[in-house]
Design a protein that fits this description.
D-Amino Acid Oxidase, Chain A, domain 2; 427 residues; 17 helices; alpha/beta; 3 domains; FAD/NAD(P)-binding domain
């Protein structure tokens, strides 16, 4: 064998797996199709980073992260109003819980850590197929080049055709996939801190539903970086296709919305890109291991959107840890059969990532409810308008104000109660 382990893809899942295995003394190569590590990768980018501390102690102090998220904003956006829950909490920064990141900076740093631990990182190397012998996977093929290893780790992201070729995944239904379109808008540091009420390295993360996607399933996000803002939309593919919408037009609709545009005023467009996002939750996680092969990160379907948080990067890291530890055991035993590789699945299931996927298994179905994106924003705005709009008519108590708004929405109390219950069960 050329190496103990070949890792396909130098994203978060691949780099964490490679770092941990190289640190344990194994020979590891990471192959990456991008001309440079990070060139192909895109996240919204809030990284819930406690898991990274397990791999790189003091992660937020050493890694090129942007801001520590101490303000979370959940908003319902309507054509002419925005209703939000604004949660500031300094405790979220001490110890640091989540950071905003730019993958073009973070991924090269992760690859450097893997290299420093002894892994070989090879950018510009696109794997075309897997090699196998006697029912065991033995390596990879890229053009005329072949590399062999005891174990191959597929960390090649949401589009992993290698996992499909290995019989581990099938074509996903459209509702399990979304497309994300994102811009990075440059602004002076002080402007960002003034506009978002931040100090020092504090950061804000906005999750918004409603008019930003023209009522399609999905939402908008806005995250503050040190000297830029990451902003964009994530829209479910089934709704995009069904409603004949364009994801780039929805992105523009969001950034130009009168409630959002002032937050970006005077900014300069630095980056623009789009990428698929896994939306199916636990239903997207299929077989993850074969003799000599494991699948990690997005390639394994490990993304979790609860509406309040979008998580994929921390789950990618957790799966990398589980894979590296199971492969370390397998290399020590010299056994790479199905049972040894299933050790990865057992470790993943026992980790917070496996447990969170199970806890939020109902979240994707809850987020398919069109009323979340169309009806609840106007309802909330109308109730609040009933309070704040002193139009000269005598005031009414909250119950009649609420009843009138509910009647206008056409929702009805039973439907409201059912949706509320579904939300409680899903989250
Ligand atoms: C718009 C958007 C917003 C998001 N927001 C968030 C967020 O705020 N927080 C969060 O935690 N997650 C977020 N996510 C999800 C997150 O980006 C992913 O879960 C995460 O990037 C998965 O990491 P990964 O290492 O598994 O895969 P990736 O980061 O996709 O890395 C896969 C790597 O494999 C390489 N590769 C692919 N095919 C091959 C091949 N054949 N040969 C060699 N190399 C190959 C790719 O070039 C890439 O470098 C978001 C995603 C999108 C698109």
């Amino acid at each position: 064998m050329d190496f103990d382990v070949i890792v396909v893809g130098a994203g978060i899942a691949g780099c964490v797996t490679a770092y941990r295995l190289a640190k344990a003394g194994h020979s590891v190569v990471v192959v990456e199709r991008g001309a440079e590590v990070g060139a192909k990768n895109l996240s919204g980018g809030v990284l819930y980073c406690r898991v990274m501390d397990k791999v790189f102690p003091g992660f937020a102090d050493q890694a090129p992260v942007e801001r520590r998220i101490t303000r979370n904003y959940l908003g319902f956006l309507n054509p002419d109003s925005l209703v939000g829950i604004d949660y500031h909490d300094d405790r979220l920064g001490k110890p640091v819980n989540a950071v905003s990141v730019l993958r073009a900076k973070l991924d090269p740093w992760l690859a450097e850590q893997a290299e420093a631990a002894g892994a070989v990182v090879m950018p510009g190397f696109k794997v075309d197929s897997l090699l196998s012998e006697g029912g065991k996977f033995t390596g990879i093929k890229a053009g005329d080049d072949e590399l062999t290893a005891h174990v191959v780790v597929l960390a090649d992201g949401i589009n992993s055709f290698l996992a499909r070729d290995a019989g581990l995944r099938t074509k996903e239904p459209l509702k399990h996939l979304a497309v994300g379109v994102k811009s990075v808008i440059g602004l002076p540091r002080q402007t960002i801190e003034d506009r978002f009420g931040l100090a020092g390295d504090q950061g804000a993360a906005y999750a918004i539903v409603g008019d930003c996607t023209a009522g399609a399933g999905g939402g908008g996000f806005l995250y503050t970086n040190q000297e830029s803002i990451s902003i964009g939309v994530v829209v479910r593919l089934d709704d995009l296709v069904g409603k004949g919408l364009s994801s780039s037009e929805l992105h523009d609709r969001f950034v130009l919305h009168p409630q959002i545009q002032p937050l970006l005023a005077g900014g300069e467009l630095l980056e623009y890109g789009c990428h698929l996002v896994a939306e199916g939750g636990k239903a997207m996680v299929h077989d993850l291991a074969r003799p000599g092969l494991v699948v990690v990160g997005d390639a394994a379907g490990l993304t979790l959107n609860t509406g309040l948080t979008v998580r994929g990067m921390d789950l990618a890291a957790a799966s990398g840890i589980a894979a590296a530890d199971a492969i370390d055991d397998a290399l020590q035993d010299g056994n790479f059969g199905q049972a040894a590789m299933d050790g990865y699945v057992a470790r993943l299931d026992q980790s917070f990532a496996g447990k969170d996927m199970a806890t939020y298994a109902k979240a994707p179905a809850f987020l398919e409810n069109p009323r979340l994106f169309n009806d609840y924003g106007p309802l909330l705005a109308n109730v609040l308008r009933g309070f704040y709009n002193l139009d000269g008519a005598p005031r009414e108590h909250i119950i009649p104000v609420f009843r009138a708004a509910l009647k206008e929405s056409g929702l009805g109390i039973t439907r409201l109660a059912r949706d509320g219950l579904a939300g409680v069960k899903a989250l």
